[in-house]
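In response to a reviewer's request, we include the raw inputs and outputs for one of the modeled complexes. The three entities were modeled together in a single run.
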Amino acid sequence: MLNWFHRLGSPKIFFEISGRWQVPLLFLSVLMLTGGAAWALLFVPPDYQQGDSVRIMYIHVPAAILAQSGYLMMAGAAAVFLIWRIKLADVAVKCIAPLGASITFLALVTGAIWGKPTWGTWWVWDARLTSTLVLFFLYIGVIALRSAMERQAGAGRACAILALVGVVNLPVIKFSVEWWYTLHQPASFSLTEKPTMPVEMWLPLLIMVVAYYLFFFAIWIMRIRNEILVREKSTDWVKQWLTVR
Amino acid sequence: MDGHGVYIWAAYGLTLVILAANLWWPMLARRNIIRTAKSAMLKGMNSQRPEDQL
Amino acid sequence: MNLFIASVQRDLLVHFRHPSEVLNPLVFFIVVISLFPLGIGPEPGQLKEIAPGIVWVAALLATLMSMDSMFRSDFEDGSLEQVVLSEQSTFIFVLAKVVSHWLLSGLPLVLLMPLAALLLFLDEAGTWALTLSLLLVSPTLSLLGGIGAALTVGLPRGGLLVTILVMPLYVPVLVLATAMVQAAEAGSDTIGYVYWLLAILFGSVCLAPIATAAAVNVATDQ
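The model returned the following C-alpha cells for the whole complex.
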C-alpha cells in the first residue's frame, strides 16, 4: 500500500495512470452534473416555505461542501509535501488552490442569489456564508503567497505551511463565527439548515454532491498533469510523449 | 416558477459558467504547453547552440 | 534563555533609538479611530454602540502595520540565518521576537485603550473590558502575525500580503473580544470571555511558534 503511494508520487507514473482515468472521470462527472441539475430543475417539488428557489440548494450546497473539503484536501497534500518531500504533493497544492477558490466563490454567489428571494436581501451575514467568506480569504492567501514567491525556492514549503496553519484555524474560525451569529441573530430558519428531507429531495442532492466531487477531481487532475508537463519538460519521457502528440 | 425564475436561472447559469471555465482553462493551458514545448524542442534540434538544448 | 533575553534586549534598544517605527502604528491607530466620527457622525449614542468594533479593527490594522518589521532587519543583515544555523532553538528565538514585538506594539496599544474609549464614548465598564480584552489578545496577535511575518520576510513588499494572510486568523479573537466589551457594557459578566481568550492565547503560544520557526527555516534556506 505504501509502495503504491510512493510509486504514485513519481510524476511519470502519476501522469500515465491519470491519463487513463481522466476522460472517463470527466465524462461521468459531466453526465451526473447535467442529470442532477435537470432533476433539480424539473422534477423536485417546490418547497412549501421557499417555493421554487429551493432548487438553488442543489448547486449551492455541493459547492459549499466542496469548498471546505477542497481546503482539507489542500492541507492534506501540503502535509504530505512537508513530511515526505514528495514534489508531486506540492504540485497538487499549487493546482488545487485556484480551483478551490473558484468553487468557494461559486458557493458564496449562489448563496447570495438564494438569499434574495428567500430572505429579501442579497447578502446576509449568517454563520455559514460568513465562514465561507473567511474560507475564501484563506484560499486567496495561499494563492497570493504562491504568486508573490513564484521564482523562489521555498515557495512550495511556505505555501504548505500556510495551508496547514489555515486548516488548524479553520475549526476555530467556524466555531467562533457560528457562536457570533447566535449572539446577534437568533434565526429560526437557517439558509442551510437541513430538516429531514424526503428521498425525492435528498437523492438528487446526493447525486449533485458526488457529481461535484468527481468534477473537482477531474479538473484537479487536469491541472496537475499540465504542471507536470511544465516542470518535467526537460526529461526524456516528456520529450517522448510530446513527439507522439 | 412563481417569480423566482430569474434567481434560479441566474444561479444555474453562473454555476455553468464557472464550472465550464474551470474545464476550459486547463484545456487551453495544455494546448499552449504542448505548443511551446514542441517548438522549443524543434528549435533545440535545429540549433547547435548549447543553450537551446533543453 | 540567554538568547531569549539578549534578543529582547537588543530589539528594545534598537527601537528606542528609532522610535518612529514604534510610534507610527500608534498614531495610525488614533487616526483611524478619529476618522469614524467624521464618517459616521458625532452622536455619542451611535458611536458608543459600535465602539468595540471600531477600536478592535483599528487595533488589528495597527498591529499588522508593525508586523512586517518583526524579522525583516534580522533577515537583511544575515543574523536570522545565523540563528537558524546555530545550535540555538529557533522556537525560543521566535518567542523572543514575539515578546519584543508585543512590548513595542501590543503593550502601547493597550495603554492607548482608555484614550480610544474616551473618543468613542465608552463607559467605565466598557473601557475596562476593552483594555483587558486587548491585554489578553495582543500577545496572540503578535504570535499569529509572526507566522505571516516569517512567511513573507524574503519578499520585497510583503507588508500588505501579511495582512491578507493573517486577517482570517484574527477572526475568532475579534469576535470574542468585541463580544466581551459589548457584554460588559450591557452589564453582564465577562469572565467566560476571559477564559476563552486565555485558552486561545495558551494554544497560540504552543502552536504558532512551530509554524513561524518552520517559515523562518524556509526563508533562510535560499
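As requested, we also summarize the result in words. Chain A has a mean pLDDT of 88. The interface with chain C takes residues 82, 134, 137-138, 140-141, 144-145, 148-149, 152-154, 157-158, 161-162, 164-166, 168-169, 172-173, 175-177, 179-180, 183 of chain A (CB under 8 Å).
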